Amino acid sequence: MATFLYKLGRSAFRRRKLVALIWVALLVLAGVAASSAATPKDPGFALPGTESQKAFDLMEERFPGAGSADGAVGRMVFKAPAGQKMTDPKNKAEVNEAIADLKKGSTEISAVKNPFEADAVSEDGSTAYIVVEYKTNSMELSDKSKESLTDVAKDARSAGLAVELGGDASMVEHDAASSEMIGILIAAIVLVITFGSLIAAGMPLLTAIIGVGVGISTITALANVLDLGTTTSMLATMIGLAVGIDYALFIVSRYRSELAAGRERDDAAGRAVGTAGSAVVFAGLTVVIALAGLAVVNIPILTKMGFAAAGTVVIAVVIAITLIPALLGFAGDKILGRKVRKARKAGVDIGQGVPGAKPKAGVRWAQFVLRRPVAVLVTAVVGLGLIAVPAASLQVGLPDEGSSAPASTQRKAYDMLADGFGPGFNGPLTIVVDAKKSENPKKAVDDVAASVEKMDGVAAVVPAGLNPAGDTGLITVVPEDRPSSPDTEKLVEKIRGEGKTFKADSGAAVFITGATALNIDFSQMMNDALIPYLALVVGLAFLLLVLVFRSILVPLKAALGFLLSVVAALGAVVAVYQWGWLADLFNVEQPGPIMSMMPIFMIGVVFGLAMDYEVFLVTRMREAYVHGERPAETIVTGFRDGARVVTAAAVIMIGVFAGFISSGEQMVMMMGFGLAIAVFFDAFVVRMAIVPAVLALLGDKAWWLPRWLDKALPNVDVEGEKLQKQLADRPQDPDEDRQLVRV
């Protein structure tokens, strides 16, 4: 592997114009393809195999259009001033005027339902709501239509009515670009401090942006063909930007080290790609495994997001081992800091640092850990363990308008509807009765409705009658409590339990869906997939790391350290976003349940990134061990050569993710915080403290591998041992890259 990558890196360095031209052409082609592609359609949210999905599918089959969620829906909620009713002539006239203005304001509206004709006025007459249905989904809805909805609401407020907006048509799109720019700015500052050279700092940023550009443009171009939808690129952008910067950072840093050791520029580029590039390839593989493994969950949107992000990571790896060495050829000596360039011109050997200079911070930290490995290990493990305690209280759920910020119009509309129509109005349940095998379908549907109406926790039951074929019925159930309450969840479970009795008595099959039912099914899918996902991802990565490190205990330590950091990160997320600790600091306006996909999503992303740091840091230790250093010396060597770079990479990653905390969208903010804190724990506590402490205690045993397994495993030469021997035995030759044998 190292020999092949040496050849590739050196060839890219020498043929830099051709390599750069190829990547520019790929970026342009991807951009043209993306710009000419049709606007992707929203594929919707599906949960294959669940009762909720079966209900939706049955509705779509027996009641064409009833189960469809293609069009956006907006709700304009009105509340009359104290002492008045919405049915008063003046207020009624205002509502009718709003309906007329809505119809004039947008050509995308398919229907506007008058509350006085659609039974959308509360019993006490204080509240009414207009339902606005659109021809396009919320992602494709034009700004003009959204502005029209907002303007009509403003006009109605000026008449003295309380007017708020709900539904997906009223959702405000937050600008993700500003969040990404914050991450890029932080990365730029860290890179300048790390390298002391604007050229060296700009190179990882440039290549990461090119990689993300190619990846996202390709996703956009293929969105309609592969039914990727409009949200697939979110994860790809976040991960692609982070790993793209990190992978380039490691290779550029190794190149500078090789130059400092007196190598010729093309040889230094080859060695950098052959050693650090090998680590990049295997680190990228662990990230790809973690992201592609999301397919285990069997939720289409997660699978597509995972594969799209994995594709972007592959592009980042290929760019790192081809475009980076090409750009290094253009950079010349400017890739080094000014002081280093002056030292090289003066003929000073800086390969081992400046004589008499104070040891690097990484070396001093490694020496400290070697002196007190037990104390460092216990402190780190206990500290993360305490932070992980809140994870035991984790409550998951799907967000709705009730979890929006109290000051938002969506939350106000939600509260107004709850006050006027009851808490359960915001989350009605839909029961689909398949009476095809029943002798009397109408009686079967009526019996189900009558039985459900007698259940505790039911506020109202509204049968919608049979479909045109007369074999299926719809029943709307309004719970007494809010959609996310435990009582409503119990009601769903009770109805599902009674469904078996209904089928036995009448032959009718009963399926239930709705916000609460969907939440229950989604959470169950997450829970069921967690163990298989962990087993698949950790198992494959463990085998990969055994191959890389040729050790059993080092990969085991890596996996256990990851589990500790991710549980601690979940504990921090629960403390901040569920319990409300430090809520003001992180702009958490409404503490509540954690998004259902958060745990498994965090596990997938953080595992891949955690293995990056493990590979980059420990590979250097393995390299030193193979070249004859004692176990304690290898730890110092690894930290001397890798601690600064790993620290910079982690800070950049944290900056990229933390930038999303300011997005203004609660779910994106939660993801940004969770990923940022997880990277912090894993990089600075697990990899920088627990890893050296464990290796110090294990000594030579850390690198133990059974002989039979050592013989069975192929030698991928990640540490470059075979490469070093070939280069040492063979004189430098301009055509050397053609002489090297592929491995």
Distance between the termini: 6 Å
The low-confidence runs, each spanning 5 or more residues with pLDDT under 50, are 350-357, 733-743
Radius of gyration based on Cα positions:
30 Å
Q: What is the general shape? A: elongated
Proportion of beta-strand residues: 5-15%
What are the salient characteristics of this protein?
743 residues, 4 domains, Alpha-Beta Plaits, disordered C terminus, Multidrug efflux transporter AcrB transmembrane fold, four-stranded antiparallel β-sheet
Please summarize what this structure is.
It is built from 24 helices and ten strands. The chain is α+β, with helices and mostly antiparallel strands and 743 residues long.
Polypeptide structure, described:
- This protein is α+β, with helices and mostly antiparallel strands.
- It folds into four domains: 192 residues, Multidrug efflux transporter AcrB transmembrane domain (Multidrug efflux transporter AcrB transmembrane fold); 128 residues, Alpha-Beta Plaits (2-Layer Sandwich); 97 residues, Alpha-Beta Plaits, CATH 3.30.70.1130; 202 residues, Multidrug efflux transporter AcrB transmembrane fold.
- Helices cover 63% and strands 8% of the residues.
- The strands form three sheets. A four-stranded antiparallel beta sheet has the order 2-3-1-4, with helices on both faces. A four-stranded antiparallel beta sheet has the order 7-8-6-9, with helices on both faces. A two-stranded parallel sheet has the order 5-10.
- Helix 19 runs parallel beside helix 21.
- The protein starts with a helix and ends with a helix.
- The C terminus is likely disordered.
